[in-house]
Amino acid sequence: MSSTKVGFRLAACLLNISEARRKDIVEKIAKAAVYGDNGNYVIAACTEAFQSIDMAIQEGIHPCLGAVDLVPIYPLLNVGVEECGKVARNIAEILTLRVPGCSVFLFGQADQPEKRSLVQRRKQLGWFKGRDFNSMKVKPDIGASPSERYGITGVGASPYVMNCNVTIDTEDIATGKDIASAVRGSNTSGLKGVQAMAFPHNGKIEIACNVESFEDEDKIITAHEDSVYISYCVLGKTFSCVSPQSIEAQIKKLASNYGINTARTALVGFTPEECKHCATYALKKGIGEFWRMRRGMFM
């Protein structure tokens, strides 16, 4: 972020790390992001994560390939995705120098000239299948070959991506997979920009959704669909994404066809507008550890 005569220039990095159970580790990484080294907040947080998380012993249900699994840069205010791609590429290069032995694959605007999406890159690398790096023969874009300790980290830039998880009250993974398939944007009756997977979670099934923003250049969103999407502007361009409430309602409807209720919904992080407002507020007020004010996960 930097200040200009027209206000903030703001991009978000919603860092994905392969740790959620050890609160002390998560907080150490968050503090590194706030108090990091000479303004290199993302690098400081990643460095702390690499020091604290050993992928050789990491356990979890959600797919992941790296101790730092994802470093996405999203434009929010007065900055474009192309510039975010340059920032992401710079982060990748500094990170592999700062943490010898770590490896990076690039996606989106950082992946030049192909600009392959995160989903494409993850499929190529076997992100959805596990992390047997010896058999995968993964070649990183920057850095060393993936190690058991660090794994491989995705670094890139794209329009904003939300994470919305809906838990359904069943242990039947097959039903969960059917519902996840039905809600995906790749399904003709699914929700545009939504990618979904089903996982067992605390005796129930969680439908984990990545919700991509898209520029509606062809005006494919009809008037009656307006309530399904939320829109925001960056540098005069309007982007849209499916609202968390619409995802929850769609999964609830699909689950009811199987006689199943939904148990809970969590928006992991923020909507694009909420992210922009929270970041701007915290920066203006000088509030570093903002998560202490905004506890938990909210719709």
TrEMBL record:
GO terms for molecular function: folic acid binding; transferase activity. InterPro entries: Formiminotransferase_C_sf, Formiminotransferase_N, Formiminotransferase_N_sf, FormiminoTrfase_cat_dom_sf, FTCD. Pfam families: FTCD_N (PF07837). It comes from the Eukaryota. Residues 9-159 form the Formiminotransferase N-terminal subdomain domain. This is Formiminotransferase cyclodeaminase N-terminal like.
